[in-house]
Amino acid sequence: MNPGSVQRILYIPFDQLHRNYGVLKDADKATDVIAMIESQAMVTGANWHPERLFFLISSARHFAQDLQDEGFTVDYRKATNTPTGLQEIQKKYKGLPIICAEQSSFRLTEKLTSLKAEFIPNDFFLTPRDLFASWADSQKSFLMENFYRKQRVRLNILMEGDQPAGGAWNFDKDNRLPPPKNYTWPAYLEHTRDEIDNEVATELKISPTTTWATTRKGALAQLDYFIKKHFAHFGPYEDAMALDSWSLHHSLLSPYLNNGLLHPAEVIKAAEKAFKTGKVPIESAEAFVRQIIGWREYVNGMYWFLGPEYRNHNQLQATRKLLPLFENPNATQMNCIKSTVTNINERAWVHHIPRLMLLSNLALVTGTNPQEFLEWMRRVFIDATDWVMVPNIIGMGVHADGGLMMTKPYAAGGAYISRMSNYCKGCAYNPKLRTGDTACPFTTLYWDFLDRHKETFAKNHRMSQQVFGLNRLSDLPELKEHAQEVLEGLEKGLI
Ligand SMILES: Cc1cc2nc3c(=O)[nH]c(=O)nc-3n(C[C@H](O)[C@H](O)[C@H](O)COP(=O)(O)OP(=O)(O)OC[C@H]3O[C@@H](n4cnc5c(N)ncnc54)[C@H](O)[C@@H]3O)c2cc1C
Ligand code: SF4
Fold first, then answer.
1. DSSP tag of 18
2. Which of 48, 98, 306, 373 could bridge to 310 as Cys pair (CB 3.0-4.6 Å)?
3. Is 156 helix (H, G, I), strand (E, B) or coil?
4. Beta strands in 145-188 (DSSP E)
């Protein structure tokens, strides 16, 4: 295209890679130039998990290539940082305006605003930010379930007239089975690597796994695989953790939903279509729909509603440094944590229960600093983005907001983990014991945590029963002493 005929610069960040949404939906090949920036500040700014960096960069380069093949002029460039790259492009095109969809983080919004970019609404979600804010403004407490029911009606998903399909809004009680015994899990879908992938891998000096697709085609194949092989069984084992399967029946779609290769509307459409064939039970269909139109939209809405300072909350005044076991699975003998961190190191993913009831629970009961924990989680997960990590960690994971988002902390001892997984059998520790050398660290630290914060939690009606349970512990002084030993052992990487 002749540079003289360019009229607009359309900026595509690496998490808006969809042809039909954002600024691309009404892009004009004759007059628009597409700007994409590989920010070196982003690449080298943190010790990112290599799978994550590879996935983000390779997906963006594939997307740029697809646009070029379609006839667009794409200015994809490496630059010191995003604003510098965009300024270079603006210079080339004589100061033309930058147009983009609203960004997905406060930080990027600020950067683009300082470049006087024009924003169009972000349609990568199903809920406009102002609609969410008007719901949240009208609530006493921000119960996800209330938001979710409104979403079902508003979007007309799994509805029979004005009633929920299957006669109930929520089948959560049917979704708490432990891992099945003697069960054959479907094989994992592998994604083959092409020239662009190999080029990125060589630049990053890594050998990526075949777990994550880096193209729209691959993302659609993952969606199709989930619908055919996993969807029907998704619900019942949703919360289970198993040594013999790293993903159980989870969809593995979050990376593509978060970088734009898939839109939530496409995922919901495929799920509804499958449900209508009658082969997917309501407890699986409802559970999955709840994740996509409920949790995902709720978390994004809360990120914008709660504002940029929300990430700094530390209401429980947790100051411990990040424990070595988060980086190094050999720094612990706890089977559940060793296995989870090994899985993360391998492919940058574990499902929501290890994230919540193992990693966050451990950070919570050990009093780990929320911001240090948040930074670690953002570095190591394939699907980590600011809007999703901040509410999930600060609000849900470590209760650092004092209950603004979730009314009670997700603290649990070894009994919960033992019930929902098969980790405990092969562990050096015993989930039933709270004192002694073989006591489960989770069990000991759970009671210690409740005791440390009993004055705060006694005022919370959803926690008072748990706090009351402390009165039944005749060995509390001994347990408190043992908790100190456990914390010291964890810091030294010996527990
Ligand atoms: C402490 C903690 C941290 C998390 N960090 C992230 C993160 O960085 N990025 C991320 O995408 N998800 C995050 N989640 C949510 C959830 O763990 C992942 O979305 C899910 O494990 C991704 O795997 P999947 O695609 O197989 O999900 P499935 O179990 O198949 O669920 C389907 C989809 O529902 C959506 N979803 C479900 N729960 C949530 C939620 N709480 N928040 C947002 N979306 C949700 C995801 O898009 C997911 O792909 C976090 C949850 C917790 C408790
Ligand atoms: S006994 Fe405790 S530390 Fe060991 S696997 Fe079970 S919950 Fe984890």
1. -
2. 306
3. coil
4. 159-160, 163-164
Half-sphere exposure of 159 (CA within 13 A, CB side): 13
The per-residue pLDDT for range 281-293, each reduced to its tens digit, is 999 999 999 999 9
H/E/C letters for each residue in 322-370?
A: CCHHHCCHHHCCCHHHHHHHHHHHHHCCCCHHHHHHHHHHHHHHHCECH
Which two three-digit tokens encode residue 373?
């924990």
Rounded Cα distance between 229 and 386, Å, is: 31
Query: Residue 224 is encoded by which pair of tokens?
Result: 């199709």
Query: Helix crossing, 216-225 with 50-70: angle to 10°?
Result: 120
Residue 463 Cα to ligand 2 middle (Å): 23
Residue 188 has pLDDT above 90, yes or no: yes
For residue 210 the two structure tokens come to 């075949």
Q: What is the pLDDT of residues 70-124, one digit of tens each?
A: 999 999 999 999 999 999 999 999 889 999 999 999 999 999 999 999 999 999 9
pTM of the predicted structure, to 2 decimals: 0.97
8 A C-beta contact, residue 77 and residue 88: yes
**Ligand 1 lined by 49 (C-beta under 6 Å):** no
Q: For ligand 1, atom 15, which residue shows the shortest CA distance?
A: 352
